[in-house]
Protein backbone atom coordinates (compact mmCIF):
# COMPACT_ATOMS: atom_id res chain seq x y z
CA UNK A 1 0.00 0.00 0.00
CA UNK A 2 1.27 3.39 0.92
CA UNK A 3 4.87 4.40 0.52
CA UNK A 4 4.10 7.93 1.63
CA UNK A 5 3.55 7.27 5.32
CA UNK A 6 7.23 7.06 5.25
CA UNK A 7 10.49 7.94 6.72
CA UNK A 8 10.91 11.21 4.93
CA UNK A 9 14.19 13.01 4.84
CA UNK A 10 13.45 14.58 8.21
CA UNK A 11 13.58 11.15 9.83
CA UNK A 12 17.07 10.60 8.49
CA UNK A 13 18.50 11.88 11.75
CA UNK A 14 17.30 8.68 13.37
CA UNK A 15 20.45 7.07 11.98
CA UNK A 16 18.78 5.44 9.04
CA UNK A 17 20.98 7.14 6.46
CA UNK A 18 24.55 8.41 6.60
CA UNK A 19 25.65 11.98 7.31
CA UNK A 20 26.55 12.48 3.64
CA UNK A 21 23.11 11.33 2.58
CA UNK A 22 21.51 13.64 5.15
CA UNK A 23 23.44 16.57 3.63
CA UNK A 24 22.28 15.54 0.17
CA UNK A 25 18.66 15.44 1.35
CA UNK A 26 18.98 18.87 2.95
CA UNK A 27 20.44 20.45 -0.20
CA UNK A 28 17.85 18.65 -2.33
CA UNK A 29 15.11 20.36 -0.33
CA UNK A 30 16.78 23.78 -0.46
CA UNK A 31 17.29 23.56 -4.21
CA UNK A 32 13.70 22.45 -4.70
CA UNK A 33 12.34 25.40 -2.72
CA UNK A 34 14.02 27.83 -5.15
CA UNK A 35 13.67 25.73 -8.32
CA UNK A 36 9.88 25.23 -8.07
CA UNK A 37 8.83 28.91 -8.38
CA UNK A 38 11.56 29.47 -10.98
CA UNK A 39 10.26 26.53 -13.03
CA UNK A 40 6.75 27.96 -12.73
CA UNK A 41 7.67 31.36 -14.18
CA UNK A 42 9.93 29.94 -16.90
CA UNK A 43 7.17 27.60 -18.07
CA UNK A 44 4.59 30.38 -17.85
CA UNK A 45 6.77 32.51 -20.12
CA UNK A 46 7.70 29.86 -22.67
CA UNK A 47 4.13 28.59 -23.19
CA UNK A 48 2.57 32.01 -23.78
CA UNK A 49 1.97 31.42 -27.50
CA UNK A 50 1.66 27.64 -27.53
CA UNK A 51 -1.27 27.05 -25.16
CA UNK A 52 -4.60 28.50 -24.09
CA UNK A 53 -4.54 30.66 -20.94
CA UNK A 54 -5.85 27.69 -18.91
CA UNK A 55 -3.29 25.35 -20.47
CA UNK A 56 -0.51 27.85 -19.88
CA UNK A 57 -1.40 28.14 -16.19
CA UNK A 58 -1.76 24.39 -15.78
CA UNK A 59 1.57 23.61 -17.44
CA UNK A 60 3.33 26.03 -15.10
CA UNK A 61 1.62 24.48 -12.08
CA UNK A 62 2.48 20.96 -13.25
CA UNK A 63 6.18 21.77 -13.65
CA UNK A 64 6.32 23.39 -10.22
CA UNK A 65 4.50 20.45 -8.61
CA UNK A 66 6.83 17.97 -10.35
CA UNK A 67 9.86 19.80 -8.93
CA UNK A 68 8.31 19.83 -5.45
CA UNK A 69 7.51 16.12 -5.66
CA UNK A 70 11.07 15.26 -6.69
CA UNK A 71 12.85 17.48 -4.17
CA UNK A 72 10.35 17.45 -1.24
CA UNK A 73 10.97 20.87 0.34
CA UNK A 74 7.48 20.41 1.76
CA UNK A 75 5.80 17.06 2.56
CA UNK A 76 4.39 15.24 -0.46
CA UNK A 77 0.76 15.46 0.74
CA UNK A 78 1.13 19.24 1.10
CA UNK A 79 2.34 19.42 -2.50
CA UNK A 80 -0.71 17.36 -3.42
CA UNK A 81 -2.87 20.16 -2.02
CA UNK A 82 -0.77 22.99 -3.49
CA UNK A 83 -1.22 21.79 -7.09
CA UNK A 84 -5.04 21.78 -7.22
CA UNK A 85 -5.22 24.96 -5.14
CA UNK A 86 -3.01 26.83 -7.62
CA UNK A 87 -5.12 25.50 -10.49
CA UNK A 88 -8.21 27.07 -8.93
CA UNK A 89 -6.41 30.35 -8.14
CA UNK A 90 -5.09 30.71 -11.70
CA UNK A 91 -8.43 29.93 -13.28
CA UNK A 92 -7.58 26.56 -14.84
CA UNK A 93 -10.99 25.24 -13.78
CA UNK A 94 -13.63 25.74 -11.09
CA UNK A 95 -13.16 24.45 -7.57
CA UNK A 96 -15.93 21.89 -8.11
CA UNK A 97 -14.16 20.48 -11.17
CA UNK A 98 -10.67 20.48 -9.66
CA UNK A 99 -11.64 18.98 -6.31
CA UNK A 100 -14.16 16.39 -7.56
CA UNK A 101 -11.50 13.64 -8.05
CA UNK A 102 -10.76 13.76 -4.32
CA UNK A 103 -14.15 12.05 -3.89
CA UNK A 104 -13.54 9.47 -6.61
CA UNK A 105 -14.85 5.98 -5.61
CA UNK A 106 -11.29 4.66 -5.68
CA UNK A 107 -10.44 7.09 -2.87
CA UNK A 108 -12.94 5.21 -0.71
CA UNK A 109 -11.36 1.92 -1.73
CA UNK A 110 -8.15 3.36 -0.32
CA UNK A 111 -9.87 4.41 2.90
CA UNK A 112 -11.57 1.06 3.49
CA UNK A 113 -8.47 -0.99 2.75
CA UNK A 114 -6.29 1.28 4.91
CA UNK A 115 -8.66 0.76 7.85
CA UNK A 116 -8.48 -3.02 7.35
CA UNK A 117 -4.68 -2.85 7.27
CA UNK A 118 -4.68 -0.71 10.40
CA UNK A 119 -6.75 -3.34 12.21
CA UNK A 120 -4.35 -6.09 11.14
CA UNK A 121 -1.42 -4.21 12.65
CA UNK A 122 -3.36 -3.07 15.73
CA UNK A 123 -4.31 -6.62 16.72
CA UNK A 124 -1.08 -8.27 15.57
CA UNK A 125 -2.74 -10.40 12.92
CA UNK A 126 0.04 -9.68 10.43
CA UNK A 127 2.76 -10.86 12.84
CA UNK A 128 0.77 -13.97 13.77
CA UNK A 129 0.42 -14.94 10.14
CA UNK A 130 4.13 -14.34 9.53
CA UNK A 131 5.22 -16.49 12.48
CA UNK A 132 2.78 -19.22 11.48
CA UNK A 133 4.63 -19.66 8.19
CA UNK A 134 8.13 -19.26 9.61
CA UNK A 135 7.58 -21.94 12.25
CA UNK A 136 6.38 -24.58 9.76
CA UNK A 137 8.28 -27.85 10.11
CA UNK A 138 9.18 -27.73 6.41
CA UNK A 139 11.11 -24.52 7.01
CA UNK A 140 13.11 -26.12 9.80
CA UNK A 141 16.41 -24.48 10.45
CA UNK A 142 17.62 -24.29 6.86
CA UNK A 143 18.79 -20.68 6.33
CA UNK A 144 18.01 -20.87 2.61
CA UNK A 145 14.44 -21.94 3.33
CA UNK A 146 14.15 -19.29 6.02
CA UNK A 147 15.29 -16.65 3.52
CA UNK A 148 12.71 -17.89 1.03
CA UNK A 149 9.87 -17.93 3.57
CA UNK A 150 10.75 -14.49 4.99
CA UNK A 151 10.61 -13.10 1.46
CA UNK A 152 7.41 -14.93 0.54
CA UNK A 153 5.62 -13.89 3.75
CA UNK A 154 6.78 -10.28 3.35
CA UNK A 155 5.58 -10.14 -0.27
CA UNK A 156 2.23 -11.74 0.61
CA UNK A 157 1.56 -9.35 3.50
CA UNK A 158 2.61 -6.41 1.35
CA UNK A 159 -0.18 -7.23 -1.09
CA UNK A 160 -2.62 -6.08 1.61
CA UNK A 161 -0.67 -3.98 4.12
CA UNK A 162 1.51 -0.91 3.51
CA UNK A 163 4.92 -1.77 2.07
CA UNK A 164 6.53 0.34 4.78
CA UNK A 165 4.47 -1.21 7.58
CA UNK A 166 5.19 -4.71 6.28
CA UNK A 167 8.93 -4.06 6.19
CA UNK A 168 8.80 -2.50 9.67
CA UNK A 169 6.94 -5.55 11.01
CA UNK A 170 9.18 -8.15 9.34
CA UNK A 171 12.39 -6.27 10.19
CA UNK A 172 12.61 -7.33 13.88
CA UNK A 173 11.48 -10.85 12.96
CA UNK A 174 14.31 -11.18 10.44
CA UNK A 175 16.81 -9.62 12.86
CA UNK A 176 15.85 -12.09 15.58
CA UNK A 177 16.36 -14.99 13.19
CA UNK A 178 19.74 -13.62 12.09
CA UNK A 179 21.06 -13.12 15.62
CA UNK A 180 19.99 -16.64 16.61
CA UNK A 181 21.54 -18.17 13.50
CA UNK A 182 24.77 -16.25 13.99
CA UNK A 183 25.11 -17.34 17.62
CA UNK A 184 24.58 -20.93 16.56
CA UNK A 185 27.04 -20.83 13.65
CA UNK A 186 29.73 -18.94 15.61
CA UNK A 187 29.25 -19.64 19.34
CA UNK A 188 32.75 -18.32 20.13
CA UNK A 189 32.02 -14.89 18.68
CA UNK A 190 35.00 -14.83 16.35
CA UNK A 191 33.05 -12.85 13.75
CA UNK A 192 30.27 -10.28 13.82
CA UNK A 193 26.92 -10.42 12.15
CA UNK A 194 28.11 -7.70 9.76
CA UNK A 195 30.76 -10.07 8.43
CA UNK A 196 28.13 -12.58 7.28
CA UNK A 197 26.92 -11.97 3.70
CA UNK A 198 23.71 -13.89 4.42
CA UNK A 199 22.68 -11.19 6.92
CA UNK A 200 22.86 -8.54 4.19
CA UNK A 201 20.82 -10.76 1.89
CA UNK A 202 18.16 -11.28 4.56
CA UNK A 203 17.78 -7.54 5.13
CA UNK A 204 17.54 -6.83 1.40
CA UNK A 205 15.01 -9.65 1.05
CA UNK A 206 12.72 -7.89 3.54
CA UNK A 207 13.00 -4.52 1.77
CA UNK A 208 12.72 -5.77 -1.80
CA UNK A 209 9.96 -8.30 -1.14
CA UNK A 210 7.88 -5.59 0.53
CA UNK A 211 8.24 -3.47 -2.62
CA UNK A 212 7.42 -6.10 -5.23
CA UNK A 213 4.65 -7.64 -3.14
CA UNK A 214 2.69 -4.40 -3.39
CA UNK A 215 2.04 -4.89 -7.10
CA UNK A 216 -0.12 -7.97 -6.49
CA UNK A 217 -3.42 -6.26 -5.68
CA UNK A 218 -4.95 -2.87 -6.48
CA UNK A 219 -4.66 -1.91 -2.80
CA UNK A 220 -1.09 -3.16 -2.47
CA UNK A 221 0.59 0.16 -3.22
CA UNK A 222 -0.67 3.62 -4.30
CA UNK A 223 0.71 3.49 -7.88
CA UNK A 224 -1.69 0.62 -8.63
CA UNK A 225 -4.85 2.51 -7.77
CA UNK A 226 -3.51 5.74 -9.25
CA UNK A 227 -2.95 3.96 -12.57
CA UNK A 228 -6.34 2.27 -12.40
CA UNK A 229 -8.01 5.62 -11.68
CA UNK A 230 -6.17 7.45 -14.46
CA UNK A 231 -6.95 4.73 -17.00
CA UNK A 232 -10.59 4.96 -15.99
CA UNK A 233 -10.84 8.76 -16.16
CA UNK A 234 -8.54 9.37 -19.15
CA UNK A 235 -8.97 6.25 -21.28
CA UNK A 236 -12.34 4.91 -20.15
CA UNK A 237 -10.92 1.51 -19.17
CA UNK A 238 -12.16 0.00 -15.91
CA UNK A 239 -9.87 -2.63 -14.40
CA UNK A 240 -11.58 -4.72 -11.73
CA UNK A 241 -9.89 -6.05 -8.61
CA UNK A 242 -9.94 -9.58 -10.01
CA UNK A 243 -8.61 -8.54 -13.42
CA UNK A 244 -5.75 -6.58 -11.87
CA UNK A 245 -4.72 -9.63 -9.84
CA UNK A 246 -4.91 -11.76 -12.99
CA UNK A 247 -2.31 -9.39 -14.46
CA UNK A 248 -0.15 -8.64 -11.42
CA UNK A 249 0.01 -11.91 -9.47
CA UNK A 250 1.69 -13.84 -12.33
CA UNK A 251 4.13 -10.95 -12.63
CA UNK A 252 4.83 -11.12 -8.90
CA UNK A 253 5.29 -14.90 -9.12
CA UNK A 254 7.86 -14.25 -11.84
CA UNK A 255 9.71 -11.46 -10.03
CA UNK A 256 10.04 -13.10 -6.65
CA UNK A 257 12.01 -16.25 -7.65
CA UNK A 258 14.40 -14.02 -9.59
CA UNK A 259 14.88 -11.87 -6.48
CA UNK A 260 15.45 -14.95 -4.32
CA UNK A 261 18.03 -16.42 -6.68
CA UNK A 262 19.80 -13.07 -7.04
CA UNK A 263 20.14 -12.53 -3.29
CA UNK A 264 21.18 -16.12 -2.71
CA UNK A 265 23.98 -15.79 -5.27
CA UNK A 266 25.12 -12.34 -4.11
CA UNK A 267 24.89 -13.16 -0.39
CA UNK A 268 25.61 -16.87 0.24
CA UNK A 269 24.86 -18.62 3.54
CA UNK A 270 28.17 -20.36 4.07
CA UNK A 271 28.60 -23.36 6.35
CA UNK A 272 25.97 -24.22 8.97
CA UNK A 273 25.94 -27.10 11.43
CA UNK A 274 23.03 -29.55 11.83
CA UNK A 275 22.67 -28.43 15.44
CA UNK A 276 22.17 -24.83 14.33
CA UNK A 277 19.34 -25.91 12.07
CA UNK A 278 17.49 -27.69 14.86
CA UNK A 279 17.98 -24.87 17.34
CA UNK A 280 16.68 -22.30 14.86
CA UNK A 281 13.50 -24.31 14.35
CA UNK A 282 13.01 -24.37 18.14
CA UNK A 283 13.56 -20.61 18.32
CA UNK A 284 10.92 -19.91 15.65
CA UNK A 285 8.45 -22.25 17.34
CA UNK A 286 8.99 -20.51 20.69
CA UNK A 287 8.44 -17.11 19.10
CA UNK A 288 5.12 -18.33 17.75
CA UNK A 289 4.09 -19.72 21.14
CA UNK A 290 4.83 -16.34 22.75
CA UNK A 291 2.00 -14.87 20.70
CA UNK A 292 -0.46 -16.87 22.78
CA UNK A 293 -3.94 -17.84 21.69
CA UNK A 294 -5.89 -16.08 19.00
CA UNK A 295 -7.59 -12.97 20.34
CA UNK A 296 -11.12 -11.87 19.52
CA UNK A 297 -9.69 -8.86 17.71
CA UNK A 298 -7.56 -11.07 15.46
CA UNK A 299 -10.49 -13.33 14.66
CA UNK A 300 -12.79 -10.40 13.89
CA UNK A 301 -10.15 -8.73 11.72
CA UNK A 302 -9.67 -11.98 9.80
CA UNK A 303 -13.45 -12.20 9.27
CA UNK A 304 -13.63 -8.63 7.95
CA UNK A 305 -10.61 -9.21 5.74
CA UNK A 306 -12.17 -12.41 4.40
CA UNK A 307 -15.40 -10.56 3.57
CA UNK A 308 -13.43 -7.95 1.64
CA UNK A 309 -11.55 -10.61 -0.31
CA UNK A 310 -14.75 -12.47 -1.13
CA UNK A 311 -16.52 -9.35 -2.36
CA UNK A 312 -13.50 -8.11 -4.31
CA UNK A 313 -13.10 -11.38 -6.16
CA UNK A 314 -16.74 -12.48 -6.51
CA UNK A 315 -17.71 -10.28 -9.45
CA UNK A 316 -14.71 -11.47 -11.47
CA UNK A 317 -15.30 -15.10 -10.58
CA UNK A 318 -18.99 -14.86 -11.44
CA UNK A 319 -18.17 -13.15 -14.72
CA UNK A 320 -15.98 -16.12 -15.64
CA UNK A 321 -18.38 -18.78 -14.33
CA UNK A 322 -21.65 -17.28 -15.58
CA UNK A 323 -20.48 -15.07 -18.46
CA UNK A 324 -19.79 -11.36 -18.08
CA UNK A 325 -23.26 -10.36 -19.23
CA UNK A 326 -25.08 -12.55 -16.70
CA UNK A 327 -27.56 -10.48 -14.63
CA UNK A 328 -26.17 -11.68 -11.28
CA UNK A 329 -22.58 -10.78 -12.19
CA UNK A 330 -23.68 -7.41 -13.58
CA UNK A 331 -25.80 -6.68 -10.48
CA UNK A 332 -22.97 -7.50 -8.10
CA UNK A 333 -20.53 -5.34 -10.06
CA UNK A 334 -22.99 -2.45 -10.03
CA UNK A 335 -24.16 -2.68 -6.40
CA UNK A 336 -20.95 -3.84 -4.71
CA UNK A 337 -17.97 -2.32 -6.55
CA UNK A 338 -14.52 -2.61 -4.99
CA UNK A 339 -14.87 0.66 -3.07
CA UNK A 340 -18.16 -0.39 -1.45
CA UNK A 341 -16.73 -3.83 -0.63
CA UNK A 342 -13.81 -2.21 1.20
CA UNK A 343 -16.13 0.13 3.12
CA UNK A 344 -18.47 -2.73 4.10
CA UNK A 345 -15.56 -4.78 5.41
CA UNK A 346 -14.17 -1.76 7.28
CA UNK A 347 -17.58 -1.09 8.85
CA UNK A 348 -17.64 -4.65 10.21
CA UNK A 349 -14.65 -3.75 12.37
CA UNK A 350 -16.76 -1.16 14.19
CA UNK A 351 -19.62 -3.56 14.99
CA UNK A 352 -17.82 -6.85 15.76
CA UNK A 353 -17.22 -6.87 19.56
CA UNK A 354 -14.05 -8.09 21.24
CA UNK A 355 -15.65 -8.42 24.68
CA UNK A 356 -18.99 -8.12 26.46
CA UNK A 357 -18.21 -4.65 27.82
CA UNK A 358 -18.98 -2.89 24.57
CA UNK A 359 -15.47 -2.71 23.12
CA UNK A 360 -15.29 -3.29 19.37
CA UNK A 361 -12.55 -4.44 17.02
CA UNK A 362 -11.76 -0.93 15.81
CA UNK A 363 -12.34 2.48 17.37
CA UNK A 364 -12.53 5.71 15.43
CA UNK A 365 -9.48 7.03 17.32
CA UNK A 366 -7.49 4.18 15.77
CA UNK A 367 -9.15 4.41 12.37
CA UNK A 368 -8.17 8.05 11.87
CA UNK A 369 -4.48 7.06 12.08
CA UNK A 370 -4.57 5.73 8.51
CA UNK A 371 -2.38 7.39 5.88
CA UNK A 372 -4.47 10.36 4.77
CA UNK A 373 -1.45 11.80 2.96
CA UNK A 374 -1.57 9.05 0.35
CA UNK A 375 -5.27 9.68 -0.17
CA UNK A 376 -4.55 13.36 -0.86
CA UNK A 377 -1.79 12.38 -3.28
CA UNK A 378 -4.12 10.07 -5.12
CA UNK A 379 -6.85 12.70 -5.47
CA UNK A 380 -4.31 15.26 -6.64
CA UNK A 381 -2.89 12.92 -9.26
CA UNK A 382 -6.31 12.14 -10.71
CA UNK A 383 -7.27 15.82 -10.68
CA UNK A 384 -4.11 17.11 -12.38
CA UNK A 385 -4.14 14.26 -14.90
CA UNK A 386 -7.72 14.99 -15.92
CA UNK A 387 -7.00 18.72 -16.20
CA UNK A 388 -4.11 17.97 -18.56
CA UNK A 389 -6.55 16.45 -21.01
CA UNK A 390 -9.35 18.99 -20.47
CA UNK A 391 -7.05 21.97 -21.20
CA UNK A 392 -5.19 20.46 -24.16
CA UNK A 393 -1.85 20.30 -22.32
CA UNK A 394 -1.72 16.52 -22.65
CA UNK A 395 -2.36 16.67 -26.40
CA UNK A 396 0.31 19.32 -26.96
CA UNK A 397 2.79 17.48 -24.78
CA UNK A 398 2.07 14.19 -26.49
CA UNK A 399 2.55 15.59 -29.99
CA UNK A 400 5.73 17.37 -28.91
CA UNK A 401 7.32 14.26 -27.42
CA UNK A 402 6.24 12.11 -30.35
CA UNK A 403 7.92 14.59 -32.66
CA UNK A 404 11.13 14.47 -30.63
CA UNK A 405 11.28 10.71 -30.04
CA UNK A 406 9.57 9.44 -33.16
CA UNK A 407 7.64 6.88 -31.08
CA UNK A 408 6.17 4.47 -33.59
CA UNK A 409 5.30 1.29 -31.69
CA UNK A 410 3.29 0.55 -28.59
CA UNK A 411 5.94 -1.75 -27.13
CA UNK A 412 8.74 0.68 -27.88
CA UNK A 413 6.86 3.31 -25.91
CA UNK A 414 6.12 0.77 -23.17
CA UNK A 415 9.84 -0.01 -22.85
CA UNK A 416 10.58 3.71 -22.43
CA UNK A 417 7.74 3.99 -19.89
CA UNK A 418 9.07 1.10 -17.78
CA UNK A 419 12.57 2.59 -17.83
CA UNK A 420 11.27 6.05 -16.83
CA UNK A 421 9.23 4.55 -13.98
CA UNK A 422 12.27 2.70 -12.61
CA UNK A 423 14.61 5.67 -12.98
CA UNK A 424 12.31 8.30 -11.42
CA UNK A 425 11.34 6.03 -8.52
CA UNK A 426 15.00 5.85 -7.46
CA UNK A 427 14.99 9.55 -6.62
CA UNK A 428 11.39 10.26 -5.62
CA UNK A 429 8.42 8.37 -4.20
CA UNK A 430 6.78 5.81 -6.45
CA UNK A 431 3.46 7.57 -5.91
CA UNK A 432 4.85 10.86 -7.20
CA UNK A 433 6.53 9.10 -10.13
CA UNK A 434 3.22 7.50 -11.12
CA UNK A 435 1.29 10.76 -10.76
CA UNK A 436 3.78 12.54 -13.01
CA UNK A 437 4.41 9.91 -15.67
CA UNK A 438 1.14 8.04 -16.30
CA UNK A 439 -0.75 11.05 -17.77
CA UNK A 440 2.31 11.86 -19.89
CA UNK A 441 2.66 8.39 -21.43
CA UNK A 442 -1.09 8.22 -22.02
CA UNK A 443 -0.87 11.54 -23.87
CA UNK A 444 2.15 10.37 -25.89
CA UNK A 445 0.39 7.14 -26.85
CA UNK A 446 -2.79 8.90 -27.92
CA UNK A 447 -0.83 11.48 -29.93
CA UNK A 448 0.94 8.64 -31.75
CA UNK A 449 -2.37 6.78 -32.21
CA UNK A 450 -1.15 3.91 -30.00
CA UNK A 451 -2.88 1.90 -27.28
CA UNK A 452 -2.06 3.78 -24.02
CA UNK A 453 -2.80 0.89 -21.63
CA UNK A 454 0.48 -1.10 -21.77
CA UNK A 455 2.67 2.05 -21.46
CA UNK A 456 0.63 3.24 -18.47
CA UNK A 457 0.94 -0.17 -16.82
CA UNK A 458 4.66 -0.09 -17.63
CA UNK A 459 5.07 3.12 -15.64
CA UNK A 460 3.13 1.65 -12.74
CA UNK A 461 5.13 -1.55 -12.44
CA UNK A 462 8.41 0.20 -13.18
CA UNK A 463 7.74 2.75 -10.45
CA UNK A 464 7.63 -0.05 -7.89
CA UNK A 465 11.31 -0.70 -8.57
CA UNK A 466 13.26 1.59 -6.26
CA UNK A 467 16.04 -0.57 -4.86
CA UNK A 468 19.36 1.24 -5.21
CA UNK A 469 19.49 3.70 -2.30
CA UNK A 470 18.31 3.94 1.32
CA UNK A 471 16.26 7.01 0.34
CA UNK A 472 14.61 5.33 -2.66
CA UNK A 473 11.80 3.79 -0.59
CA UNK A 474 11.13 3.68 3.17
CA UNK A 475 11.63 -0.11 3.31
CA UNK A 476 15.22 0.39 2.13
CA UNK A 477 15.84 2.93 4.88
CA UNK A 478 14.40 0.57 7.50
CA UNK A 479 16.76 -2.30 6.70
CA UNK A 480 19.68 0.09 6.14
CA UNK A 481 19.27 1.24 9.75
CA UNK A 482 20.33 -2.26 10.89
CA UNK A 483 23.92 -1.54 9.93
CA UNK A 484 23.99 -4.88 8.10
CA UNK A 485 23.57 -3.42 4.60
CA UNK A 486 26.58 -1.48 3.27
CA UNK A 487 25.50 1.15 0.75
CA UNK A 488 27.67 -0.47 -1.93
CA UNK A 489 25.91 -3.81 -1.43
CA UNK A 490 22.48 -2.20 -1.66
CA UNK A 491 23.47 -0.35 -4.83
CA UNK A 492 24.94 -3.49 -6.41
CA UNK A 493 21.85 -5.59 -5.73
CA UNK A 494 19.55 -2.68 -6.62
CA UNK A 495 21.14 -1.97 -9.98
CA UNK A 496 21.10 -5.63 -10.98
CA UNK A 497 17.49 -6.09 -9.89
CA UNK A 498 16.46 -2.85 -11.64
CA UNK A 499 17.95 -4.14 -14.89
CA UNK A 500 16.38 -7.57 -14.45
CA UNK A 501 13.12 -5.91 -13.49
CA UNK A 502 13.03 -3.90 -16.71
CA UNK A 503 13.11 -7.06 -18.81
CA UNK A 504 10.76 -8.93 -16.46
CA UNK A 505 8.12 -6.19 -16.52
CA UNK A 506 8.37 -5.62 -20.27
CA UNK A 507 8.28 -9.33 -21.11
CA UNK A 508 5.45 -10.09 -18.70
CA UNK A 509 3.37 -7.19 -20.01
CA UNK A 510 3.74 -8.40 -23.60
CA UNK A 511 2.37 -11.81 -22.66
CA UNK A 512 -0.20 -10.91 -20.00
CA UNK A 513 -1.65 -7.85 -21.74
CA UNK A 514 -2.32 -9.99 -24.80
CA UNK A 515 -4.00 -12.69 -22.70
CA UNK A 516 -6.17 -10.18 -20.83
CA UNK A 517 -7.01 -8.04 -23.85
CA UNK A 518 -5.13 -4.92 -22.69
CA UNK A 519 -2.93 -4.67 -25.80
CA UNK A 520 -5.67 -4.85 -28.42
Task: Explain what you see.
- The protein has helices spanning 19-46, 53-71, 76-89, 95-99, 105-122, 125-134, 143-158, 163-185, 197-213, 222-235, 241-266, 274-290, 296-322, 327-335, 338-349, 364-367, 372-390, 393-405, 410-425, 430-447, 453-463, 474-480, 487-516.
- The chain is mainly alpha-helical and 520 residues long.
- α7 packs antiparallel against α8, α19 (410-425) runs antiparallel to α23 and α20 packs antiparallel against α21.
- Mean pLDDT is 83; it is low at 1-16.
For this entry, give a set of tags.
520 residues, mainly alpha, globular
**Gyration radius, rounded:** 23 Å
Number of helices: 23
Oligomer: single chain
Q: How much is the average pLDDT?
A: 83
Amino acid sequence: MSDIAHLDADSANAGMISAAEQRFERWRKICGAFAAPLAFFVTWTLTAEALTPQGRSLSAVLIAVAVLWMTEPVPLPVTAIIGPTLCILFGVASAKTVLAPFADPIVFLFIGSFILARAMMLHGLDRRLAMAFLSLRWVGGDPVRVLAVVGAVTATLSMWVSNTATAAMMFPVALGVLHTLHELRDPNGRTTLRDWPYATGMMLMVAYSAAIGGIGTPVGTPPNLITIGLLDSLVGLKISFFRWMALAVPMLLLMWPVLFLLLRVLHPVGKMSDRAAGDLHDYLRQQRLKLGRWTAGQVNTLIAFGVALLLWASSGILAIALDKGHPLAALLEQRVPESVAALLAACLLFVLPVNLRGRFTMTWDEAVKIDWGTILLFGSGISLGKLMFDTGVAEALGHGIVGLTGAQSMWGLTAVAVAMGIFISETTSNTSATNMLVPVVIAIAQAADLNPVPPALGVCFGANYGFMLPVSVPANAIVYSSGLVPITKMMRAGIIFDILGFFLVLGALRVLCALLGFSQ
